[in-house]
Write a sequence for this structure.
């Protein structure tokens, strides 16, 4: 079973991003970039399937600027066997990424594709679902447990009311939730080993995909600053404030 994982280069989760002065987006110049955390979980899940003898090969795919190679190298250090970079400087929206992944999937013929449930930069949470629709494959989103037996994946999903277990025939799409696993710490030897693993590059053109954005960003603004809080002397004063000032009780 070949497994593809989709890995996106995003602003590191520790960075506090700033909105550009022209409100066209956030400033990502000179900020630390990392692999989207949910994609680390996806790559860890695929690697564990390989280590358990259930996957024959794990291929990490990233779409974006040339520096996404670093993200792919991290995926290779976690345990992916090879990487594919679909290189473009164009702004990529979820539909474009789904089309690019579909084209790579047509070439690679994997039985399982694991994506993150969302990328922490745009918080779209759309790519896995769009990809499943484009391929007409079954999908299990927000996975917290995956079991593969023969040509069936049994996936536990994190839903509002608790956990839902579904079985889906392969090939299928799975998107990862936080509790699926804890990605391994990438060691120096694995980083060194990853440098020797194959990394191939394609372009949207070579895959026959038009990645042009379909949505236009009108304006990006900082969230409104929170007002300072007030300290009240006792419960009676709190109730009074909630009743008369805030009018919530
Ligand atoms: P999104 O729909 O943008 O929130 O992203 C959901 C998931 O799709 C991510 O966690 C990745 O697994 C995958 N994905 C999104 N954008 C890219 C990209 N540019 N390259 C590779 N994978 C991506």
């Amino acid at each position: 079973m070949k497994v593809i994982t989709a890995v996106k280069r995003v602003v590191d989760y520790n960075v506090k991003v700033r909105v550009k002065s022209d409100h066209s987006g956030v400033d990502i110049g000179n900020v630390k970039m990392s692999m989207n955390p949910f994609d680390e979980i996806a790559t860890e899940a695929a690697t564990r399937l390989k280590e358990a003898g259930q996957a024959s090969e794990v291929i990490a795919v990233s779409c974006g600027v040339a520096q996404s190679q670093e993200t792919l190298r991290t995926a290779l250090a976690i345990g992916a066997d090879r990487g594919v970079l679909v290189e473009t400087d164009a702004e990529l929206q979820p539909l474009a990424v789904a089309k690019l992944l579909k084209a790579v999937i047509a070439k690679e013929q994997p039985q399982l594709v694991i994506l993150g449930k969302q990328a922490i930069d745009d918080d779209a949470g759309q790519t896995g679902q769009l990809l499943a629709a484009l391929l007409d494959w079954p999908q299990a989103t927000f996975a917290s447990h995956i079991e593969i037996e023969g040509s069936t994946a049994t996936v536990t999903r994190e839903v509002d009311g608790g956990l839902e277990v579904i079985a889906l025939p392969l090939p299928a799409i799975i998107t990862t939730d936080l509790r699926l696993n804890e990605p391994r710490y990438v060691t120096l030897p694995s980083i060194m080993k990853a440098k020797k693993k194959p990394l191939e590059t394609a372009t949207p053109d070579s895959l026959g995909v038009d990645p042009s954005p379909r949505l236009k960003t009108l304006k990006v603004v900082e969230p409104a600053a929170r007002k300072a809080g007030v300290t009240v002397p006792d419960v009676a004063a709190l109730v009074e404030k909630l009743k008369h000032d805030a009018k919530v009780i």
